Amino acid sequence: MADQGNSVRVTRLAKKREAEAMVKHLQQPNKKRVVLAEIQDLSNVGFNQIKPKCKKTTKRKVKRSVTEKDKEFDVDAKLDDDPQMCSAYVSDVYHYLHQMEIEKRRRPLPDYLEKVQKDVTANMRGVLVDWLVEVAGEYKLLVDTLYLTVSYIDRFLSVNVIPRQRLQLLGVSSMLIAAKYEEIKPPHAKDFSYITANTFTKKDVVKMEASVLQSLKFEMGNPTTKTFLRRFTRVAQEDYKSPDLQLEFLGYYLAELSLLDYNCVKFLPSLVAAAVIFLSRFTLLPKSHPWSPALQSCSGYRAADIKECVLIIHDLQLSKRGSTLAAVRDKYKLHKFKCVSTLCSPLEIPDSFFEDTS
Question: How would residue 244 be classed by pLDDT, with cut points 50, 70 and 90?
Fold first, then answer.
């Protein structure tokens, strides 16, 4: 019993000493707890730029003079307030994406309908993509899933001849793969069988899924127009006091319209994104030049480089092309997208807008 009592006293004494040491530690004047509000902006700064606070010294601070040219073309500095844009290394990320989008294995043939296909036409492709827009809406899929789906379809048709009767099967199987890649809870194969009114069985969908994966050599991660559109949209709003949702939704609308037209297959996703921003700005402010030095620096394209793509998408917007394809137009008539598909664009774009702005 005596040993047990001594053990209890030793334990209590040890706890008392630990408590005294903790009090002394907390009372040290130089120790300070870091709260979240003080570190939330550090995600935008490179690690070599984070310096601890220290006492003032007699050294004078040297301010770097920033020229107007620096302000004009320092695109990444304009995105510092958005941690998701990763401004510390966004240039490297988008350089990598630009290199990836031009890789031959990730690109469809620009003229695969003429060179490869025998039974599929541009109109059939447009009808299929328009229907897939409705399917994506039915299953509440991300728009990124839709872009990847169309990319898989074009790449598969560049190397495989299929009859028109199996074009719908290719569409749903490609969307199944894209959904597995992008979605948290993708639909099942049986769901895509059902959406075809059971024209194709679950076994058919799975078999075509395997064919697509093998044909594309499991290279499923492609940069799409949506990949570049988000950054270009931010730069396009450089002079705005607050984000313009109408400009953002209009860009999404025009980008999805571009998916319908076979003539846009030949353009790189980044070029389509640049053309979409050009046309969006022109639609909202037709008397102002829609391109700027900042957009040219960010995208790498001059206005003249994107002229052909702009004119094609402009025709889509005016319903001179794909007028019978209504899914995208109906989708963006909704109030949650600010009814951007009802906006009227001038019938002609001045040639002066495609001249070099530098």
Answer: confident
What's the distance, CA 97 to chain centroid?
Answer: 11
Query: Backbone phi, then psi, for 29, in 5-degree steps?
Result: -65, -25
**Cβ within 8 Å of residue 314, ≥6 positions away:** 279, 345, 349
The architecture (CATH level 2) of 224-354 comes to Orthogonal Bundle (1.10)
- 185-237 pLDDT, tens digit each: 999 999 999 999 999 999 999 999 999 999 998 988 889 999 999 889 988 88
Domain positions in the chain: 106-215, 224-354
Is the domain covering 106-215 a CATH 3.40.640.10 domain? no
DSSP state of 220: -
* CA–CA distance, 220 with 172 (Å, rounded to integer): 16
